[in-house]
Amino acid sequence: MFFNFEIYYPVVFLILGAGLVMLIDLFSEDAERNRMFSFFSALGGVLLAFVSLNPYWDSPAREVMRGAMLVDQFSTYLNVAILCGTTISMFASLSYVRRIGVNLADFLVTLLLAATGMLLLTTSNDLIMLFLSIELLSFCVYVLTGMHGKSGRSAEAAMKYFLMGAFATGFMILGMAGLYGITGELQLRPLGEKLLQVYQAQDGSEVMATLSMGVILIAFAFKVGAVPFHSWLPDAYEGAPTTVTGFMAVAVKAAAFGALIRLAVVAFPASASPEGFYGDLGFTGWALWVLSAASMILGNWFAISQRNVKRMLAYSSIAHSGYLLMGLASAVDGTQMYAAMLYYLLAYTLMTSGAFAMLVYASSGGKDVESVEDLRGLAWKKPAVGIGMAIFMFSMAGIPLTAGFMGKYFLFSETIQAGGRYTVLAIIGICTSIIGAYYYLRVVAYTYFRDPDDRPVAGREDWGLKFALALTVFGTLFLGIHPQPFYDAARNSVKGLRDAPTAYPVVQGDKPKDALVQK
Fold first, then answer.
1. How large is the average pLDDT for residues 451-470?
2. Are 395 and 469 in contact (CB under 8 A)?
């Protein structure tokens, strides 16, 4: 019945916030009042979305929209990270969008719709919802990337991102069509069961199944910027407005990895192929192993030679995707590794959002930070800014007492415990992480050990930016000093994913449906 048709309230509040911002922008005649009303309306939508997540923390997994969405603690944890990244981007952009000549209401509406697509993506439970969520997210991020209308590079970045995104979408549609043709299923859990039967039957359909899984993994590799499907990412990061780049780096990554984890665990388990067909890792395991190793090695290698800060952080983002893919490839027993990945995503959200917000602060004189030379002596003009930048760079490099260190510790330790070929992957991750510390510490060296220039920094009007920086600095340090509660919350949220592919205690209406566990 209609009254039993459940909805996911965080998505509703984000859409309502976006609609209210559009109405305010349409009918308000006072420009300054319009800006503030629009901002607080959007912020109210995000805060209500935060609050509405609370009932989902301790409740069993629940199918929404007739099974198209699966709301569980796993998606709830990811949605917290996505909403954190959205909030930080909103505060950091309050004055920045005015400087680059962008209407704040347009920016906020597009940002909220992108966040809506991300929340839908993390809860997607069938192939159709997965595709629609990715398209909603992607189109909004394309617009955000090219929103700096006075910048030719912004338009170029948006076009490159759009073309490569359309290419990835074609791969995804091809793979989904192949899987549906083989299994006749759209929902992920029945799809995973049918795939197991296909590989056990060995009637020739397993070749098409492997091809379909492969092209879907390629599409997700585009979305997360994994090597060798990363060519769009440095140009998109460099050309997009700085706050948009920060949003792309954290929220998009959190949503894409959330969907990839659910898809790989529930529908594409590493053990899908019979023993010996693809070796002891299975097709999915080998594919993720190769993507992870290539992303960690080449991402850090290319970042070393970059003088442009945003391109350096772009290649750094590729390397961080490699670390997360390492966790997904080596998640043998499930719970501990998935918890490490969720913790790492939360830590990455805070430290990377803060780093890009710091670039916005340093570019407040009217020109965006381009080269690392633009940061020279910044710590002596604004000591608090220098300290904040050092904290973010230390965290990305994996220096102790920061969130980044604890995230890498959890990932590397769990990968080593998996043993076998995963130990090699962990060694690659540790070595490349040490190499990556060079270009992170180079940024700190320029802020402290080079003579300052005469460029002005942020003025008093940038209260939103200062709040975003304070929030990210505090979060980066707090997660590094006191990580256990966040790791425990992540571990509790992934218990439903442990028995892949089908171990969700799904609740439909008032009657629980027994979980099907593949033995």
1. 71
2. no
Tokens of 55: 């009932």
Q: Which residues pair with 308 in a beta bridge?
A: 371
Helix ranges (DSSP H) in 53-126: 73-93, 96-99, 104-123
Q: Quick count: other Cβ atoms within 10 Å of Cβ 443?
A: 23
Element of type H or E holding 150: none
Amino acid found at 250? V
Helix (H) or strand (E) holding 9: helix 9-27
Q: How many other CB atoms are found less than 10 A from the CB of residue 226?
A: 28
* pTM (two decimals): 0.88
- Beta carbons within 8 Å of 482's beta carbon, 6+ residues apart: none
> Angle formed by the axes of helices 232-239 and 152-183, to 10°?
140
pLDDT digit string, tens, across residues 91-144: 988 888 888 888 888 999 999 999 999 999 999 888 999 999 999 999 999 999
Distance separating alpha carbons of residues 471 and 349, to the nearest angstrom: 12
Q: What is the DSSP string of 475-502?
A: HHHHHHHS-HHHHHHHHHHTGGGSS-SS
Q: ∠ CA(125), CA(250), CA(258), 5° rounding?
A: 20
Question: Cβ distance 89 to 111 under 8 Å?
Answer: yes
What would you measure as the largest C-alpha separation in the chain, in angstroms?
71
Answer yes or no: are the C-beta atoms of 46 and 17 closer than 8 Å: yes
Per residue in 358-401, pLDDT (tens digit) is 888 877 556 777 778 878 887 887 788 888 889 999 999 999 99
What does the chain come to in residues? 519
Is the link from the previous residue into 501 a cis peptide, with omega within 30 of 0? Answer: yes
Q: Give the other-Cβ count within 10 Å of 1's Cβ.
A: 5
Q: What does the mean pLDDT of the chain come to? A: 82
Number of neighbours of residue 150 by Cβ within 10 angstroms? 9
DSSP-based three-state secondary structure for 381? helix
Q: Which residue has the tokens 């939508």?
A: 45
CB–CB of 216/172 below 8 Å? yes
- Reading the block at residue 91, the tokens are 């505060």
Contacts of 15 (CB under 8 A, 6+ apart): 112, 113, 116
For 234-292, give the secondary structure using H, E and C.
HHHHHHCCHHHHHHHHHHHHHHHHHHHHHHHHHHCCCCCCCCCCCCCCHHHHHHHHHHH
CA atoms 225, 230, 234, 240: torsion sign: negative
Contacts of 235 (CB under 8 A, 6+ apart): 156, 157, 160, 161
Residue with tokens 């080998």: 286
Total Cβ atoms within 10 A of residue 34: 19
* Three-class DSSP category at 419: coil
Task: State the distance between the two ends of the chain, measured CA to CA, in whole angstroms.
Answer: 35
User: How far is Cα 426 from Cα 234, in angstroms, rounded to an integer?
Assistant: 25
Banded model confidence at residue 479, pLDDT cuts 50, 70, 90: very high
